[in-house]
Amino acid sequence: MKFTEDHEWIRVEGDVGVVGITKYAAEQLGDVVFAEPPEIGRQVKKGDDLAVVESVKAASDIYAPVAGEVVERNDVLDDADQATVINEDPEGAGWFCKLKLADAGELDGLMDAAAYAKFCEGL
Amino acid sequence: MTMNTIGRPTAPRAGASSAPAPTVSGSRGLLQREDLIFEFGSPDKTGVDLPAPKGGRDRLGGVARKADTGLPGLSEPEAMRHYVRLSQRNYAIDLGLFPLGSCTMKHNPRLNERMARLPGFADIHPMQPQATVQGALELIDELATWLKTLTGLPAVAMSPKAGAHGELCGMLAIRKALEARGELETRRRVLVPASAHGTNPATAIQCGFTVDEIEAAPDGRVDMADLREKLACGSDVAGIMLTNPNTCGLFERDIREIADLIHEAGGYFYCDGANFNAIVGRVRPGDLGVDAMHINLHKTFSTPHGGGGPGSGPTVLSDALAPYAPLPFVVSGEDGFRIVETANGEGAESFGRLCAFHGQMGMFVRALTYMLSHGADGLKQVAEDAVLNANYIQARLKHVMTPAFDGFCMHEALFSDAFTADGVETIDIAKALIDEGYHPMTMYFPLVVHGAMLIEPTETESKAELDRFCDALEIVARRAAAGDPSLAEAPVHAPMRRLDETRAARKPVLKWTPPTPDALAAE
Amino acid sequence: MRYLPLTDQDRADMLAAIGAPSVDAFYEDVPAAARLRGGVGGLPDHQGELAVERHLSALASKNRTAGEGRFFVGCGAYKHHVPATVDHIIQRSEFLTTYTPYQPEIAQGTLQTLFEFQTQVAALTAMDVANASMYDGSTACAEAALMACRVTRRRKVVLSGGLHPHYAAATRTLCEAQGIEVLHLTPALDGELALADAVDGETACVIGQSPNVFGAVTDLSPVSEAAHAEGALMVSVFTEAVSLGLVAPPGEMGADIAVGEGQSIGNPLTFGGPYVGLFAATQKLVRQMPGRLAGETVDADGNRGFVLTLSTREQHIRRDKATSNICTNSGLCALAFTAHMTLLGGKGLKQLAQLNHEAACDLADALEAVPGVEILTPRFFNEFAFRTPVDAEAVLAMLEERGVLGGVRASRLFPNADGLGDVIIAAATECCTEDDIAAYADALKEVV
Predict the structure, then answer these.
(1) Where are the alpha helices (DSSP H) in B283-399?
(2) For residues A35 and A96, what is the distance between their CA atoms, to the nearest angstrom?
(3) Which residue of C has its CA nearest to B513?
(4) Would you give the distance in Å from CA B390 to the centre of its chain?
(5) Residues 13..52 of A with a Cβ closer than 8 Å to B: which?
(6) Residue B377 pLDDT more than 60?
(7) How far is residue C284's CA from residue C278's CA, in Å, rounded to a whole number?
(8) Considering only CA atoms, which of C32, C79, C132 is closest in space to residue C335?
C-alpha cells in the first residue's frame, strides 16, 4: 500500500490500483455524509480530481494518486447511510474506485506506510 | 362581616415550579405550534381576491402548463397568523444584542424603511425612460459621493448585489487592468491571509486566479516575512486580498508597507471592507493605498440583514481601476443624469456587466437615509462607539476568557477556547448563551484561532445592555472553565433543542412531500 | 444622535474600566499619515428625521412612478399588485432584523419559511429541488452556467438569442473570467429552438428562455433532447415568475436547471433591486447547486426542525474549493415571494396568470388595430414585441408626452443588433386597465 500527502492510499493488484482515503483523513473528516466515487471509464492524470467526500465539517476532493482509467467503483458509497463505511473501514471496505494504471512507475513517487505515518506525525 | 369566598388564587400555588409537562396542543404558552403550509393549506383556497378572467383568450400557441402546481393557499388571516407565529421563533436585533462578529448587527432605523417605500423609489422600473427617473439617478449619484468621500477613493461601482458580489467586482476590475497591461497570462497568483473570510479565496478562484495563503504572525496580523517571501518567489502576483481591520478585530499596522510592497511587485490591493464600521469617518482606505474595496451597506450603513439578504456591495475603486468599472454606471451631464449601459463609448473599457439593471436601489435609499441622519460627525462617533463597546467587552471578560491577542481590539473582541475545560466546546458556550437570551457570537472563525469566539457588539448597544451581556457570558465562561457537563445540553430554553445537522446532510430533505399512504396508515 | 445609546458619562466610565486614556488609543495602529484629525471633510453633519425625510421625498418626487398609470414596461421586471399583508410580514422585526440562520435553535422562523419557499419554487418550476434563493435572476443564470460546467467537466456554454441580454452579459462576465467559452446566438424574436442546432459534444449547457426577452413562449423540449443527446445540460430561464401559472414550466420541458427572476411575486419594482433569484434543479444535481439550502431534521428531543444544510459546499467552509463565492441569499425578498405565493395558492396564481395573459391579448389586439403596427411575437404570455412604422425611440418619447410609458425599445437592450430600431417590447399585467390599454392605442395612433 502506498500513500500520498493528500491522504489517499493505493493498493496495487496486478495492473490495477485500489484507491481510498486514509484512516487519518477519515478521522479528521468526522462523520461522512456523502461520497461520490468516479464513473467507470474516466481517464485521470496524477493529481486530478477523482472523487468527492463530504462530512458535516468539510467537503473534500480526492485526487488521483497516479494516472489511469477508472475500471471499477464502490457503488455501496452511493447510499449515504452506507457511506459511513468510510469512517468504519477507510482502508478496506471504504475504498472508492479501482484505477487501471497508466504508468506503474508513478507509484515510486508515493510514500510507504512508515513514511506516511511519519508524515502525519508532523502535521 | 360578609365574606365573598368565590375568587381566583392570586399567587402561584405550591408545586407550580416543577418541570413542565408536554402540552396536548404542541404549543407552549405564547409559542404557538405551527405546521408547514402544505400540511394545512388547501389548493382551492386563496387569500387574494382577483377579478374572474373573461376566458376564451389564448395566444400561448399551445405552450401551456400541463400539471397544476398543487400549491396550497391560505386566507389572509391564516397567512398572517402563520408568518407571525413563525417569526416568534427568530432571534433579532430588535429583541436583543446580536454580537455576531464580522457581521455588524446594528440597529436598523425605521426611517430607512419608510423612505425606501416612497412610491418614487419603490414603484419605478429599471427600464423606464431615463428622463422619468432623474431623482433615482440623483440619489445614486449622491450616495456614490458619500461613499467616495468616506473612503477617499475616486470612483465607485454601484451594481454589486452583496459583499461577495463586490469582491467579484473588485477582482474582475483587477483582472481587466492586468489584461490591459498585457500581463493577465503571467500574473495569476493572489495572496490571501489565512485569517481571511472564506469568500476571498472563493472569489479569487472564480476570477480565474490561484490562491497563495499568507501566514498569520503571532500578533494576529499579516506575517510580513512570509509576505515578502511570497512576493519574492516570482513576478506572477496579481494582487492581495486583505481585510482591514482584519478578521481578528485588529488593525493591520503595516498596511501602508503592505500596499507599497504589492504595488512595487506590480500587483493591486483589494481590501475586504466588511469591517469598515470600525474606521468609518476616522480613516479613509484611500489613504492606506487600497485599489478596490467593497462596502457592505447592510453592515456599516444599517440596511437590514433580513434573515440573510438582500445585501448590497458598492465597490470603491482607485484611479488605476476606475476605467474598468462594471456596466451600468451613472454619469451627470448638462441635461441631468444618464446611465451608461453599453460597452460602446464611455463604457468601452468596462469589464462588463455583473447583473441585470442598476444595483440594489432599495438598499441605496436606506443607506443614504442613514448617512444623512448620522452625518459626517455622527459616522465618526459610530466608529468610535463601536470600538469602545468592543474594548469594554474585552476588558470585562479578559479575566475569565482567553483573549486571542494582547492589546486593544478594534470593533470586535476575539477569544480562544484556551480557558475551557476538556470536553467543553466553543459551541457549548454559544448554545448556553442562547439560554441566557442572547444570540451567540461568531464561533470557529477566524480559522487561525482555536475554538474562536468573535464578539462584535456594534455601537447601538447601551452600557447597561453590554453589562447584562457580560454578566451572562461571564457566568457561562466560568461554567466552561469548570467543565460543567450540563453545557452540552444547552439550549434548553429555546424554541428547539440542538438540531441534528448530520442527519440533514446525509439524507437531504429539501422540500415537503406528501406523506405516503403507509405513513398515513401508521398514524 | 438618536441611534447612539452611549452618553458622554458612559464613554468616560468605559474608558476608565478599559484603562485607555481616550478612543484615540484604539487607533494607534493606524499609520499617522492616515489618521484624520477633524473627521472626513466635505459632508454635512447629522440631521433629524424631518430634514432627512424632506430631502429624500424631494428626490422621490422627481421620478414618475408605475402606479401613476398607463404603464407597459417589462423586460425582466414587472409591475404587479402586492397584497398589504406581504409588506407587513417582511417588516416584522423578527424577520427584518435577523441574520442568516446559523443558529437554528433560534432561527426556525427563517428556516421554515425558506423550506416552504424551496417547496413552492420546486413546484412552480416543476423541478425536484430548489435552493433558498440567489441575488436575482441574472446572477442565478450565470451561476447555472458555472454549475453546468462543473457537472459536465466541459468548458463551453451556448446562450439563445432570446435570452435577456443582461442575463447573457452577466453570464459572459463570470464565464470568461474562468476561461469558459460563451457562444451567444444572434438576437432573435423567436429563436430559442436554434439552440438545438448549436449544441455539440463540447457544450456544457444550452441556456434558453421562455417567455423570452421578446415575450415569446417556446416549448423547449426539442432543445433539451438535443442537449441531452450531446451530454449537455438544459438550463431554462424565465424572467416573469407569474408566467409559471399558465406557461409550460422548465420541468415539463426537460430542463436540468431552472433559473429565473422572482420579483413579480411579492416584490416591488424598486428600480431593479433588490430582487430574488430562483434556482432549481433535478435531484441528481443537488450537491452541485450553489447557494444556501434549508433542510429538514430533528432536534435532541426528536421534534421536527430545519437547518441550513450541505453548507460544506459553501465558501465559509470550502474556501477556494467552493461551488460559488456567494454568501448571502435574498432572504427578505424570498420571504416576500413565499408570503405572496401562500396568499395566492396555486389557484390564485393561475388566475393571476390568466388575467395577465388576457391583458396582453387585449393590448395586442388594440395595438394591432393601429395602422402600420405589426405584432412580431407569435406566441406570448404577458409581453410581446411589435414593429412601428417610425423609429421606436421617437415613438416612446411621444407616447411619454401623452402619459403612456409604452415599453422598452429593443435597441436599448441590443444596441449592436440590426433591424431592431423600430421594435418596441411592451408588457401588460393585471395592473393595466381597459382604459389604460385604450389610451395606449389612441396615443400610438396619434404618433405613428
Answers:
(1) 361-397
(2) 9
(3) C119
(4) 19
(5) 31, 33-34
(6) yes
(7) 18
(8) C132
- φ/ψ of residue C372, rounded to 5: 90, -10
Whole-Å CA distances, C321 to A60, B171, B351: 8, 17, 24
The confidence score (pLDDT) of residue B345 equals 85
- Which residues 502-521 on chain B approach chain A with CB closer than 8 angstroms? 502, 505-507
The answer to whether the CB of A10 falls within 8 A of the CB of A103 is no
Phi, psi of B284 (to 5 degrees): -105, 120
Per-residue pLDDT reduced to its tens digit, B34-56? 999 999 999 999 999 999 999 98
Report yes or no: C265 and C237 within 8 Å, Cβ to Cβ. Answer: no
Please indicate whether, in this complex, the C-beta atoms of C88 and B80 are within 8 angstroms of each other: yes
* Each residue's pLDDT tens digit, B319-346: 999 999 999 999 998 889 999 999 888 8
The DSSP code for B450 is: T
Question: H or E element: which one contains C212?
Answer: none
Cβ atoms of residues C325 and B206 within 8 Å: yes
C181 vs chain B: nearest CA distance in angstroms?
13
Cα separation, C412 vs B425, whole angstroms: 58
Q: How far is CA C174 from CA B61, B181, B207, C178, C430, in A?
A: 35, 21, 7, 7, 36
**How would you list the strands of the sheet with B442-443, edge to edge?**
B402-403, B413-416, B453-455, B442-443
What pLDDT does residue B523 have?
58
Going from the C-alpha of C252 to that of each of B66, B512, C214, the distances in angstroms are 8, 20, 22
User: C-alpha grid cell for residue B498?
Assistant: 440542538
The shortest C-alpha distance from B217 to chain C (Å) reads 15
Structure confidence by residue, pLDDT tens digits, B470-483: 999 999 999 999 99
Cβ-Cβ contacts under 8 Å for B241 (sequence gap 6 or more): B167, B171, B190, B191, B192, B196, B200, B203, B204, B270, B271, B272
Of the candidates C198, C186, C194, C201, the one whose C-alpha atom is nearest the C-alpha of residue C155 is C201
A66 burial (CB, 10 Å; 0-12 / 13-18 / 19+) is: buried
Contact predicate B265/B235, CB 8 Å? yes
Nearest to C400 among B129, B307, B359 (CB): B129
d(CA B329, CA B352): 11
Q: Angle at CA C63, nearest 5°, toward C62 and C69? A: 130
A–C interface: beta-carbon pairs under 8 A: 20
Neighbours of B335 (CB within 10 A): 9
* C12 class by beta-carbon count within 10 Å (0-12 exposed, 13-18 middle, 19+ buried): exposed
Which of B444, B503, B506, B509 should one mutate to test binding to chain A, selecting the residue with the greatest count of A CBs within 10 A?
B506
Q: In what order do the strands lie in the sheet with A97-101?
A: A2-3, A8-13, A16-21, A97-101, A68-73, A43-44
C-alpha span between C134 and C117 (Å, rounded): 12
Residue carrying the nine cell digits 421554515: C112
Instruction: State the smallest CA–CA distance between residue B391 and chain C in angstroms.
Output: 7
Crossing angle between the packed helical segments C165-177 and B163-180, to the nearest 10 degrees: 70
For residue C314, what pLDDT band results from cuts at 50, 70 and 90? low
What does the pLDDT average to over C330-359?
97
CB–CB contact C321 A34 (8 Å): no
End-to-end CA distance of chain B: 60
Residue contacts between B and C (CB atoms, under 8 Å): 712
Q: Which residues pair with B314 in a beta bridge?
A: none
Number of residues written out for chain C: 448
**What are the backbone angles phi and psi of residue B405, rounded to the nearest 5°?**
-140, 160
Give φ, ψ of B162 to 5 degrees. Answer: -170, 175
CA C296/CA C308 separation, integer angstroms: 9
- ipTM for the predicted complex comes to 0.97
